[in-house]
Amino acid sequence: MTKMRSTILVAPLVLALAGCSDRMASSEINDGSFGNATMNNSLVHMGAVSATQALGQRFAAEVEPTITFPFDSAALTPESQMVLSAQADWIRQFPEVRFRVYGHTDLVGSTAYNKALGLRRAKAVVAYFASQGINPSRLEALVSYGETRPVIPVSTPEERNRRTVTEVSGFVGGNRMTLNGKYAAIVFREYVAGAKRVHPSNRVIATQVAPGG
User: Fold this and answer.
1) Fewest Cβ atoms nearer than 10 Å: which of 9, 53, 66, 101?
2) Quick one: angle between helices 36-46 and 51-62, nearest 10?
3) Rounded to a whole number, what is the largest CA-CA distance in the chain?
4) Residue numbers in the chain where pLDDT is lower than 70
5) What CATH number does the domain located at 64-173 have?
6) Residues 12/18, Cβ–Cβ less than 8 Å
7) Under a CB-based contact definition with an 8 Å cutoff, are residues 86 and 64 in contact?
8) How far apart are CA 74 and CA 124, in angstroms?
């Protein structure tokens, strides 16, 4: 009798668990990058990577670092400005960090002309960042023309070669030694911001109980 009663009590529990999703609750808030900051900070402390490398990897992973240009032009297209706006948003989050912008061209034209054109493109990006409120002292415009680093090694016009690439280059002033080995001091701000985000289920509840007109 006791064994039968135990079976009766356990059966509903088993059915209830079977009806639940097999996905862990933590997966609701884990986008797959959870723990990366801790891992990177550990690698920095161990000397496996530098703080500059760690931030550079994050930048390249979280925003598109490259924009392209029309042929023989340093003008920013609307599409390029959208990408640069996303870059600027990321750059503003890290006032301790410096950036470089590399200008490239395709292989059409002379070496001297392409060198000047690549530099104009890099300077156009730096000017755009300055218009977004980023201090130009944190930015450096460099040139690397298409003859040296083409994405597609062709001698005809190629848009993918006509580009600029934004990269993390180091730290501002005296911050270098302070932050090198203390990568978590930078990414801590991300955790603080993440803690303020409203969970989707809470957002729905808030909408339901909001007073009407």
Assistant:
1) 9
2) 150
3) 95
4) 1-49, 174-213
5) 3.30.1330.60
6) no
7) yes
8) 7
